[in-house]
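Quick note —
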Amino acid sequence: MPKPIVAIVGRPNVGKSTLFNRIVGERLAIVEEVPGVTRDRLYQAAEWAGRPFTLVDTGGLDFADQDEIASNVRRQAEIAINEADVVVFLVDAKSGLTPGDREIAAVLRKADKPVILVANKVDDFQSQKDYFEFYGLGLGDPIPVSAAQGLNTGDMLDAVVKSLPPVGEDPEGRDLVRIAVIGRPNVGKSSLVNKILGEERVIVSDLPGTTRDAIDTFFEQDGRRYLLIDTAGIRRKSRIDLSTERYGVIRALRAVDRSDVVLLVIDAVDGITDQDKKIAGYAHDQGRALVIAVNKWDLIKKDDRTQDRYLKQIREDLVFARYAPVVFVSALTGRRVAGIIREVDGAAGNHSLRVATPGLNSLIRESVLQNPPPAYKTRRLKIYYATQTGVRPPKFTFFVNDPDLAHFSYLRYLENQIRSAYGFEGTPLRFLLRKKAGGKRQETENRS
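Predicted structure written out below.
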């Protein structure tokens, strides 16, 4: 099941990024005493009371911006609210209730979504005087917190988790291959989807950002069922201002979370961009299978080494995803588009592939003999036993003498040996190093 999405919304400078950092436990969002610093959202996996969710830090909704009318800002809020499963509405207890808060609250009251009203920057938790006026927003009891000091955030997260949708079974079954088609605007995602489907099911336009909703399309091919999820294009931060595409990122995150295989569409003319790396990185971190489609290949002037050079550059730019197959296609002419589904099938199969434990251990023993782990001072990593403990993505557990002795480069070596023996093209691998000493278990996870 896809992880639910929790979006933090509010006016600029009420402490959204500080709260975001507090919840995820890392300083991921830039925090400055200047309104509007967060021009793009950050997203991070979070968990509370055993419930995982994706936390989204949004840009501030500024109704005082004279360059944009209030209706446009309201439309942003509506999109964010509609895409999130739970909305954390953050207000500033020090500045008090403002017209901007009332405007946002008016939208929230109309939405059929759980809203957690949170009053930040509270000094006195024994009295309601700092946040009493926010009861007037009509969104229930405000929860007082101090995001900067981490005070009372546990009560807030309890309320968030209580409002998350219940965990349920996947109604569509595991025989369905879900493909999230993601990429920057105007790289030809919708055209590619139409060519795969063989019909005009998705509106195609030369204007960037035409597809603003994630569109689900079922189809069958050679007896296998697929679900194509065509998402809104993900823009670079400098291109995301007060527009509906700003909140399209949430749709793309949800599409990745719902998918088995992510089809990352890249513009052959522009090449790999920083935003492409971020998109691929999110898919990798979420453990999704990945296929890269280089579209508009018909526009590239070629010689007999053009494709090799391009492929080498992709491998260098997406070094963490060297396992992903690359298909050079043209949605306009249809050239090589048929190869996309073949690669998707292969990636989906490897994503669920299991290997036998005896063969895996024979491979590990042979690999260690050929290239022993490097020693650290007088100690050396010892691998006693290995077994595959999960799929989607494949996860391998290694029982070792000390997980801290496992250097990243040696784990990469073992990954390469496993891939050489078993393939696993198109899917990331996860390594879990486990030690039992004195009855206490120590674990270290490596996301390769």
